[in-house]
Amino acid sequence: MKIEDEIKSTVALSIAKKVILNLAFTKNYVGDKFNEILKPFEISGEQYNVLRILRGQKGKPINMQDIQDRMVTKNSNTTRLIDKLLLKKMVERNVCPENRRKIEILITQIGLNTLAELDPLIENHENGITSNLTNTELEQLNNLLEKIREN
Amino acid sequence: MKIEDEIKSTVALSIAKKVILNLAFTKNYVGDKFNEILKPFEISGEQYNVLRILRGQKGKPINMQDIQDRMVTKNSNTTRLIDKLLLKKMVERNVCPENRRKIEILITQIGLNTLAELDPLIENHENGITSNLTNTELEQLNNLLEKIREN
DNA sequence: TATATACATTTGTACCTACAAATTTTGTAA
DNA sequence: TTACAAAATTTGTAGGTACAAATGTATATA
């Protein structure tokens, strides 16, 4: 659906405005489908992202700030996201012995199992949602998106 | 910056995953700059969107549901957004006399003045943020984003 | 008319983001 | 050593989103 129809605009929009609106619409479109998958597992999108980061550590603990740096949303509140994951026993939290200001986070077996269950569903979602585009188009889209952030 | 570097990924990502991550990153990037502009005016991005919709009505009132339909975020809570705008006297709210279930919203002069002040700043932002891309690339990006939502 | 049903909006709750201030721990300089 | 500044995290507060339930109004139908 064209972006003018999505917002029921009566006037013509500049191409800059269209791209920016389309970016938001498409991101929401993708995000909504993503949340549908996570819903039965009772974790949010950002909680999932944190779990992914923790799994990527392969057993090595990671502190709050380093988690924050790797997140999609930079101002997300890692403390409170971790709190939610702790309640579900999906992560473990320990004070770093070398520097007691730091907190070290580890993913638990429960967290790993949840991700393992999700893996095929997420991959399916990712492939499905991009299936309208050829590989060349996906590469193109990827480059154009990265180019916008080059400032 | 490449998306793998943004999230400091150590493993290669599928092109589908990269596109989806890039979509979120780029949307946040654009949105953050947008919020910086709005900040001195003490209105949020969604409040701005509502004001834009109301101005587009050119004096014709619009009800809650129709506002909702035109918003970027479909599950946003229009009642509470309008409440905030009412406090700033940027909108007016009246029960529809023909159908008392409906609520009619109008933008006030204060709302219009705020938008008029913002117009050049927003346009500047939109043109600046897309200035890395040629017009052809912007059209391409626009088409690719719309194509993803074709399902 | 009474009652059920649909419609339009509001309210409640849980989670998330943005940003500033507070807290705890560490490092450093007089 | 004491005082001060920096670092790492937590807490507080004001928006927002997502979704379900509640409220009030209109409409249909027996």
UniProtKB/TrEMBL annotation, chains A, B:
Coiled coil: none annotated. Residues 1-150 form the HTH marR-type domain. The keyword DNA-binding applies. PROSITE patterns: HTH_MARR_2. SMART domains: HTH_MARR. Keywords: DNA-binding, Transcription, Transcription regulation. The keyword Secreted does not apply. InterPro entries: HTH_MarR-typ (IPR000835), WH-like_DNA-bd_sf (IPR036388), WH_DNA-bd_sf (IPR036390). It comes from the Bacteria. GO terms for molecular function: DNA binding; DNA-binding transcription factor activity. This is MarR family transcriptional regulator. The lineage of its organism: Bacteria, Pseudomonadati, Bacteroidota, Flavobacteriia, Flavobacteriales.
